[in-house]
Amino acid sequence: MHLLFSIRALKGAKGADLEISAPVGICLTADDGKTLGELNQEGERVLVAKGGTGGSLHSEFLPSKGQARHIRLDLRLIADLGLVGFPNAGKSSLLTALSHATPQIASYPFTTLRPEIGKVMYDDHKQVSVADLPGLIEGAHMNRGMGHKFLKHVERTKQLMFVVDVCGFQLATNTPFRSAFEAVQLLTKELELYKEELLSKPAILVVNKMDLPEAEEKLGELQNQLENQEELSQLLPEDMVPKSFLHFKHTVPVSSLTGLGLPHLKAVIRESLEEQEALESERHRIEKLQELRREIPVVSKTTWGQRRSKPLNWN
Ligand SMILES: Nc1nc2c(ncn2[C@@H]2O[C@H](COP(=O)(O)OP(=O)(O)O)[C@@H](O)[C@H]2O)c(=O)[nH]1
Ligand SMILES: [Mg+2]
Predict the structure, then answer these.
(1) Three-class SS of residue 61?
(2) Is residue 257 in contact with ligand 1, taking CB distance under 6 Å?
(3) Is the model's pLDDT at 122 over the cut of 90?
(4) Is the CB of 6 under 6 A from ligand 1?
(5) pTM (2 decimals)?
(6) 269 contacts: CB under 8 Å, gap ≥ 6
(7) DSSP letter at 83?
(8) Ligand 2 centroid vs 274 CA: distance in angstroms?
(9) Where does 81-275 sit in CATH, by number?
(10) Which CDD domains match (predicted)?
């Protein structure tokens, strides 16, 4: 009796958990590169390091040390749509025109250094979040320009919204001119080289600057090229051509400057997201049904037959 009492006295109180708050959208990686978990919703928790076991009768009252590890926290934005485009395509202008965000706009590349999220509001109070990300440049997958810093945010968006200048663009005097069609292929290639799965996200193509002279003609040309992209891309340098082509669910011409096409774009965004939601909930429903079927034991016909062949006892 006395011994038991002293053991109880030796057992100290349990140590408190050390909990560190982190913003939603954090991805946790251990120093060996293993993903420990993600915090995607308010209130979610991830166990990063286990505490040691205290001293007990089994361990001869020698406590073991808890886990110690270096971890990396990566913040990835969660938005419904992520804007993907080269600098100067008009991404920030588009976000300003669509939402109440106030990103920096200027006619020189790399005005957007930090991602910015804008909310697109609908008359029935539905909101859609759009992330304006620093412009991609060729070679971003190799960490050129804003590189990975930018691309990691696209991982978390539900859909992609490509923005191209209908008249094409030239990043600098010493870099080649790229047509809108080439821009689409180059953007696709950059995403593919970074993470191929990104291209499985639904994508909308916004053709901006439709107020410029000859825009209509150029838009027609681009639409034609996109319809025949497999054949036409053979004429492009090999390093510009992605392995698989993106087939945009919608191609919407707009002018962020004059507002042309923006109400239609807003409607398209909503339609596209709702379609995806419906598809996902249907997929979820089917998965649940299959799970249930697996759980319910299947009674084979013979078993039924054998049971039925026995005389029923009504007493
Ligand atoms: N003519 C015209 N210029 C535009 C339009 N949208 C953006 N711009 C101009 O293009 C330049 C780059 O715009 P910005 O929104 O900063 O592009 P970002 O680098 O893609 O974010 C700015 O000078 C804008 O005023 C448009 O629809 N028409
Ligand atoms: Mg910008």
Answers:
(1) coil
(2) yes
(3) yes
(4) no
(5) 0.74
(6) 81, 120, 128, 130, 161, 204
(7) E
(8) 27
(9) 3.40.50.300
(10) Obg (cd01898)
